[in-house]
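Sync notes, pocket subgroup
Present: LS, DG
LS reminded everyone that the earlier model was apo-only. Rerun requested with nicotinamide-adenine-dinucleotide included. Inputs:
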Amino acid sequence: MLQGKRGIVFGVANEYSIAWAIAKAAHEHGAQLAITYQNERFEETVRQLARTLNEPLVLRCDVSEDEQIERVYDTIAQEWGKLDFVVHSIAFAPRTALEGKFLETSRADFLLAHDISVYSFIAVTRHAVPLMTDGGSVLTLTYLGSERAVPGYNVMGVCKAALEACVRYLAAELGERNIRVNALSPGPIKTLAARGIPGFTKMLDIMRERAPLRRSTTQEEVGKLAVVLLSDYASAVTGEIVYLDCGYHIMGM
Ligand code: NAD
Ligand code: 0WE
């Protein structure tokens, strides 16, 4: 589905990362890849994982620094000269903001969460645009907490609402270049970002009880749908938030 296409996947931390599942699926479908990790803490793990792909570019990118984003795209421009897709699979809010009361969200936590989880999506898309000379597909990851008050998701819910608005504004602006912009919205998945969230196991129980499919989403399922959205099979889909939450969000109770 992605033969002859080149893409970059931001946000691989370990084998459980949604970004990694997307990279694997894109690789299986013929894409040539670059993958990025946040810092040295993840470098060894990510380089090890990368060995199972066909020599991807493995690049460090802390999205809080413009120079690191620029360096990544300088490398892509040098090595490939063009780009077909971008996957943004990054979110962060300080633990204090996810544990305390939403009312108590500090200015510093609010700004940091929005910088990493929202602004970075605009930045990585902006740098990709000049390289997407044959059109392109940009994808990010969101969560239902953007439109429902999910207990504890707090400032991240506000970030995801803003992220989803970014999807629409970028889609509107980039459509004339045949660049599509979409988000995938999976149900809760046990990844590094989910581990240590108090009551996360309970959330998986609730999915088993209430989601029409009586379970939550797997990373592999996100990988498969991502491949479709990155491919020409989704050539008329842009500005969309695509749910793959086993139907959870349609329920009224
Ligand atoms: P993950 O921890 O594997 O991935 C999050 C990534 O963000 C990590 O690779 C981390 O290094 C990266 N990151 C954080 N701060 C960064 C920074 N300053 N610079 C660069 N990278 C940074 O967890 P995941 O669950 O795979 O999360 C990926 C995306 O999926 C996130 O946007 C998350 O909100 C979204 N999502 C997750 C779930 C879930 O339940 N796991 C559900 C819906 C959406
Ligand atoms: O987007 C997320 C989680 C993103 C996340 C996770 C962490 C944990 C470690 C952002 N920042 C941090 N900061 C840390 O220090 N998800 C969709 C998973 C998630 O997190 C929740 C959820 C769900 C689902 C938090 C509360 C309630 C539900």
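DG: The chain is about 40% helix and 15% strand.
LS: Helices lie at 18-28, 40-50, 66-79, 95-99, 107-128, 155-174, 200-210, 219-230.
Action: DG to write up.
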